[in-house]
């Protein structure tokens, strides 16, 4: 987050390529690259391309997490990278804008790959366009002013108009290029990157140099770290076909290495970039070797025995169905809550023991696997104490040939027609037409519940002699 306050000059202009080209890269890079290229030569091209794309997707997802735009739980990156089952839903569960941020960042890395395959030099115009693609879903950025934190509009592809120096935890200020110096400094950076000796340099050092120099300038109001990692990827793509993948749980080492480079210890950041690139090479190499064992094919044979609608497992299908069940239960409660019963009637939203047995669904559907079930209740204490409950129960189709993947029954009255839904009705989101059918079924089920409650109430009153 930026500090908009101006202050005495503290910016150190970017260093030239001369001070970086003398830095060396360990033999680990060359060794890993050699094994990687050997594995690539004999690998199935489709498998190889899929693994490289997975690394790009990792880089795209993690780059936003590094900046604190969202938090990632362990395992989510792998699922998204490999485009695993329900990966979109998993991103949506993190936050409403995460998937759109990810798509923008992925488009930027794809743009970087396309650019890297050309022989064109990096230009300021291309960097500005990269920023616009990366940050297209970000409307504002936070800035600390004399009045406190404020949200300012983020201009895509435009250099900053206000200082964005950062106040560190110890109260000191980390200075970036003043506004007036941004254009000259970016011009200097691009000039360094088109030098013949830069072009002849080692890809790891090229990536480290342009990343560090760019973040030193910090030319944009926000998004500089994301642009820097994509910019550095140009040179790794050209050397090995891989992006710079930095995981959000590596951020402490990452920022520490950048700080060392700020103080003149540039070899620390070069080593950090090398380690990340070697990790990516080794990941792809190991996965290529693992594919030779045929583990995926063997697992696929087994997996096929457990797949149902949409090639989902029964467990995955049930997860989607439980979302439908929650919607139905919520609507049951809302429908009752919107009725005028008077002050004597209590409406409850409850979770309780589920008495539904699998046999109630017959052989076409698998009943609940858990004894817990959501439900609603109607009760009163005076003049007589009566109460009724309704627990909608979920059944999952036993055969993928059944067009209706889900069946919801009214546990309180099995004479009520079941609510049946196709997978496409509720996944990836519940469609409006499906919501309408849910409303109709809820009206039927809640109408039956209220009618039974009325009958029970009158029966109890008669038994107490309260009515003739």
Tell me about this structure.
- With 468 residues, this protein is an alpha+beta fold.
- It folds into two domains: 2-298, Fido-like domain (Fic-like fold, Orthogonal Bundle), CATH 1.10.3290.10; 310-463.
- Helix content is 53%, strand content 12%.
- The protein has 17 helices and twelve strands.
- It has helices at 18-21, 27-42, 45-66, 76-81, 87-94, 98-116, 124-134, 179-193, 196-199, 203-217, 224-240, 251-262, 266-293, 295-304, 314-337, 423-426, 432-463; strands spanning 2-3, 140-145, 148-153, 166-167, 173-174, 345-353, 365-366, 372-380, 386-390, 392-397, 406-410, 419-421.
- The strands form four sheets. Strands 7-10-11-12 form a four-stranded antiparallel beta sheet. A three-stranded mixed beta sheet has the order 1-2-3, with no helix packed on it. Strands 6-8-9 form a three-stranded antiparallel beta sheet.
- Helix 2 (27-42) runs parallel beside helix 13 and helix 3 (45-66) crosses helix 13.
- The protein is elongated.
List key phrases describing it.
Fic-like fold, alpha+beta, disordered N terminus, 468 residues
Estimate the global geometry from the Cα principal axes. elongated
Report the CATH topology name of the largest domain: Fic-like fold
**What's the count of strands?**
12
Helix content: 40-55%
Explain briefly what this protein structure is.
This protein is an alpha+beta fold and 468 residues long. The protein contains 17 helices and twelve strands.
Topology:
Blueprint: E1 2-3, H1 18-21, H2 27-42, H3 45-66, H4 76-81, H5 87-94, H6 98-116, H7 124-134, E2 140-145, E3 148-153, E4 166-167, E5 173-174, H8 179-193, H9 196-199, H10 203-217, H11 224-240, H12 251-262, H13 266-293, H14 295-304, H15 314-337, E6 345-353, E7 365-366, E8 372-380, E9 386-390, E10 392-397, E11 406-410, E12 419-421, H16 423-426, H17 432-463
Parallel strand pairs: 1-2
Antiparallel strand pairs: 2-3, 4-5, 6-8, 7-10, 8-9, 10-11, 11-12
Helix pairs in contact: 2-13, 3-6, 3-13, 6-7, 6-11, 7-11, 8-10, 10-11, 10-13, 12-13, 15-17
């Amino acid at each position: 987050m930026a500090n908009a306050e101006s202050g005495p000059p503290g910016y150190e202009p970017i260093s030239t390529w001369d001070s970086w080209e003398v830095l060396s890269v360990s033999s680990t890079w060359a060794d890993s690259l050699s094994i990687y290229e050997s594995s690539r030569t004999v690998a199935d091209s489709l498998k190889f391309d899929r693994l490289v794309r997975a690394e790009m997707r990792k880089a795209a997802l993690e780059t936003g997490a590094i900046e604190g735009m969202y938090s990632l739980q362990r395992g989510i990156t792998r699922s998204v990278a490999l485009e695993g089952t329900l990966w979109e839903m998993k991103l949506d569960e993190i936050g409403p804008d995460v998937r759109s941020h990810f798509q923008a960042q992925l488009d930027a890395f794809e743009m970087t790959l396309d650019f890297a395959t050309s022989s064109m030099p990096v230009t300021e115009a291309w960097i500005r366009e990269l920023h616009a693609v990366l940050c297209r879903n970000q409307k504002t950025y936070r800035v600390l002013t004399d009045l406190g934190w404020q949200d300012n509009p983020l201009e895509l592809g435009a250099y900053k108009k206000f200082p964005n120096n950062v106040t560190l935890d110890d109260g000191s200020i980390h200075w970036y290029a003043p506004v007036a110096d941004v254009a000259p400094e970016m011009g200097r950076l691009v000039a360094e990157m088109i030098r013949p000796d830069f072009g002849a340099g080692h890809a790891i050092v090229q990536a480290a140099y342009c990343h560090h120099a760019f973040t030193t300038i910090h030319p944009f109001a926000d998004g500089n770290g994301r642009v820097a990692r994509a910019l550095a990827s140009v040179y790794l793509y050209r050397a090995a076909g891989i992006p710079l993948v930095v995981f959000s749980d590596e951020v402490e080492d990452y920022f520490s290495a950048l700080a060392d480079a700020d103080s003149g210890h540039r070899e620390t950041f070069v080593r950090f970039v090398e380690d990340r690139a070697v990790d990516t090479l080794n990941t792809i190499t190991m996965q290529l070797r693992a594919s030779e064992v045929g583990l995926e094919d063997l697992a696929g044979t087994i997996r096929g025995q457990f797949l149902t609608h949409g090639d989902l497992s029964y467990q995955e299908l049930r997860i989607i169905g439980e979302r439908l069940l929650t919607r139905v239960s919520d609507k049951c409660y809302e429908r009752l809550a919107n009725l005028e019963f008077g002050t004597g009637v209590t409406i409850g939203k409850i979770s309780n023991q589920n008495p539904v047995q699998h046999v109630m669904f017959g052989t076409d559907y698998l009943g609940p696997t858990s004894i817990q079930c959501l439900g609603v209740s109607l009760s009163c204490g005076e003049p007589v104490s009566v109460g009724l409950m309704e627990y909608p129960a979920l059944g999952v189709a036993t055969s993928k040939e059944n067009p209706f993947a889900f069946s919801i029954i009214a546990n309180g009255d099995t004479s009520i027609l079941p609510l049946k839904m196709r997978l496409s009705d509720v996944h990836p989101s519940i469609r409006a037409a499906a919501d309408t059918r849910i409303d109709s079924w809820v009206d039927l089920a809640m109408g039956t519940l209220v009618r039974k409650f009325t009958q029970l109430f009158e029966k109890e009153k008669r038994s107490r002699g309260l009515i003739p």
